[in-house]
Design brief:
6 helices; 176 residues
């Protein structure tokens, strides 16, 4: 059986904050499906621009974004971009692995990120399990703002991920 993705594991969790978010979008007169489609398109575009900038030196069309990228990556060593990862429990793809100061970080790009959610801790803990990075962070795009997640002990998150993997696989085997 194919290993579940990190995204599929996190989808197993209840996310009560999404209800109020979806309600707020609806009250603005926007269809949730259209909103998500537009945000995904924006996120994919920004991810691609960052990847092309880092891997091939292709300059983004937006001058402000280009300047933000230059400044952000001036003190960072990029170790990997959009790399596939796999453990005994899941598979996935991280956005960026980098060295900042004396530490390696596995990071995820998030559009206009403002606060860290439990799911962010799980996702980045999963990537850390696979990469062995020292620390984890979110990089808010397109403004390139750094959000380090302060996790002293990754073990509880790793245990949750292993449990979610077991639940996912068991559900697939039951075929309900």
């Amino acid at each position: 059986m194919k290993k579940p993705s990190v995204t599929n594991l996190i989808k197993l969790l209840d996310k009560p904050a999404l209800l109020s978010w979806a309600n707020r979008i609806g009250l603005q007169g926007t269809k949730l499906s259209e909103y998500r489609k537009n945000r995904m398109k924006f996120g994919t575009s920004v991810h691609k621009e960052i990847e092309q900038f880092l891997q091939y030196g292709i300059v983004p069309e937006n001058d402000y974004f280009y300047e933000s990228l230059l400044e952000f990556f001036s003190e960072i060593d990029v170790l990997g971009v959009e790399q596939k990862i796999e453990t005994d429990y899941f598979q996935g793809r991280y956005d960026i692995l980098l060295k900042k100061g004396d530490h390696t970080y596995v990071c995820d790009f998030k559009s206009n990120h403002k606060r860290n959610y439990f799911e962010n801790y799980l996702q980045l803990s999963a990537y850390r399990m696979a990469t062995g990075a020292d620390k984890v962070a979110i990089i808010s795009v397109p403004d390139m703002i750094w959000f380090e997640l302060d996790i002293e002990d990754f073990k509880p998150y790793e245990n949750i991920l292993i449990s979610l993997s077991n639940i996912y696989i068991t559900k697939k085997l039951l075929k309900h």
